Amino acid sequence: MADGGRFCIYVVDDDLSVRDSLCALLASHGYHAVAFASAEAFLDDYRAENAICAFVDLRMPGMSGLDLQQRLAARGEQLPLIILTAHGDVPLAVRAIKRGAVDFIEKPGSEAQLLGAIDAAMTLLSHRPKTTVPANVVSGRLARLTNREKEVLDHLVLGLTSKHIADELRISQRTVEVHRSRIREKMEARGLSDLIGMMR
Asked: Which of 71, 84, 134, 154 has the highest CB neighbour number within 10 Å of its CB?
């Protein structure tokens, strides 16, 4: 079941071990992951307003990853999809890319590949038109942040990388990434450009 108040990364795969391992990896990097065993279950519960992206298995019983991609497009949804594929399915994965998928990753995929695909999805989202958030709403969201999160946010909007922020604040890069994730969640921002827009 999707959590209505938090930004989600969806995982749609009929293989329980894939769902569990990918969700564990995402959680370890501060992301909120919601998993589904089928495309049909995903479509029943998917909330466009709190989605970052979805990792979608290419081959599943019932509706396939390509079928899901077509269904979302027909509904006018612009959810960035990252296709998960077994060896030998690369031509189909390329077809998904041509239809607008962000990336495809051959299972199991490395941590760097998976996180890189999320970054690409968030970059895509950040270039979409954004609604203006009223100043009083921004103030309310800022009040949710801890002092350390506010420090990280100040550095983020100046354009510093996580590594530079870690050096400046003398904390680990991993800790900065966790703070970034919590800032996105509390500020209800999909990416850096949303944060910059709110802080103007």
From this structure: 84
Q: What is the pTM of this model?
A: 0.63
pLDDT mean over 96-118: 87
Which CATH number belongs to the domain containing residue 47 in this structure? 3.40.50.2300
Same domain, 24 and 120: yes
pLDDT digits (tens, 9 = 90+) for 34-72: 999 999 999 988 877 778 899 999 999 999 999 999 998
Task: Reduce the secondary structure of 18-33 to three states and give it as a string.
Answer: HHHHHHHHHHHCCCCE
Token duo for residue 4: 């209505």
Residues in the chain: 200
Quick check: is 103 in a domain?
yes
Domain assignment of residue 14, given as a range: 8-126
